[in-house]
Amino acid sequence: MIEISYETIKFWFCIFLIVVTSIQILFYLFFYIRICCVKRKETKASSEEPVSVIICARNEEENLKQFLPLILEQKYPKYEVIVVNDSSEDDSEYVLKDFLEKYPHLRVSTIKKDEKFSHGKKLAITVGIKAAKYDKMLFIDADCRPQSDQWIRLMQQEFCDKHEIVLGYGGYIKKPGFLDKLIRYDTYSIAVNYLSFAHAGLPYMGVGRNLAYTKNVYDHSSKFSTHYHIKSGDDDLFVSEVGNRNNTSICLNPNSFTRSEQVSSFRNWKFQKRRHLTTSPRYKFIHKLLLFLEPFTREMFYLCSIIWCILQLELMFLPIVILIASRMFIFLLLSILNTRRLQEKNIWPYAILFDIFLPIEIAYLYFLNKVKPLKSIW
Fold it and tell me: Fewer Cβ neighbours under 10 Å: the N or C end of the chain?
């Protein structure tokens, strides 16, 4: 029987702590620092090509009344807005008829409800794409509002240098309470991941609340056919399939951001997270590896740091103190800078709490999806 001395265990424990902390620092200095360092582009009038804005709406009567005018009144020379009224059972049809009389650049496509055939959002998006007149398409949800009347202009100008996919930021409208902080921090941290990865040449997802791509890149994709049966994926699996370092750009001008209504309860947030997690197993291997490595080393960093402090280990004391302090300083500094860049106010003080809690909660929800799959397709 091989006996391992306490000194050997301490040595390898300290080595493990150094490794996970170093990986954490590398993630921040190679990926996440990009968010606060990306320079804004100036709009060029010569690049203002026509755009089709596509919105899928199911029972969104009140949201259409509130948010659709903000999209229809964008300051952009030539664009159309296509609303796909997807089997709505409220008064969306009449709301859209009123808007059609006022806005000539609004077009409506309707999918009638069929009791014998259920479908998800991907069919509605496909209908919208087929109805679009222009090559450049910009997507937003019915419960979203652009943060300014320059939204179309700023997103469209990123279609330069042969870029055919533009990833924007879609945040949530601020509300009081702890749930608001959780939702907005979770959304912010996801955005920091997909935006910084895309800037580094590794695009793996976008959000349908603020996403643009060309008909050409759509025509060269599977057109959702390979993942139609999955509840989500019209945005992230599409970008994962067709995005690469040469055709994908990001837009971080605050006036290009969109804001959505939040879910009203922690239970609804968990359901939303579970639905989104159904797509992650289909990401490319390199993306899955990186998306696992960061939260895993993050949790190991906190756990091992606490154990190290409790045991008061003196082995490699100075290097470990420097690494732990550096990781926490970089994390807090970038949390402040990046939340400001994405205009997410008052959430960075919760950074350490959510930094520890979210990977644990997401791992639990991922496991829950495995043992009890979701049923709803929308």
Answer: N
